Amino acid sequence: MTGYRVQEHDPEWEPPTDVIRTPGRAAPPRGRSGAARALQALSGSVAAGVVVLALVVVAAAWLGSRRGFPGPGAVSVTAHVVAAVLVVVAQRFADHRRGGVATLGSLVVFFVTAVLLCAQWWG
Length: 123
Prior knowledge:
Helix content is 63%, strand content 0%. It contains 3 helices and no strands.
């Protein structure tokens, strides 16, 4: 593409003529709505929090066993690690999909987090 200017704000810029849009070709994907982006951002923050919480529980169990004080048990550590894996997979799914499927991925993050908190912290 020699001879074309790269900067679109340049008044002399012209799009390349060798790229021809053919009928029947799919249009470029639409962007996400503001609400969908906000939901995805919030679920991403929640997923990151669950991962940090799992790391803290694993570290507390390790320190407890090394220093002789009771820490979280194997069930709690397993629950936190499994929840962290699930929310990361669900968030990645939400990040790479569009529409209702992406929303479902974000809702899975919230659901798994709620189950973890109810079962391990508030129960």
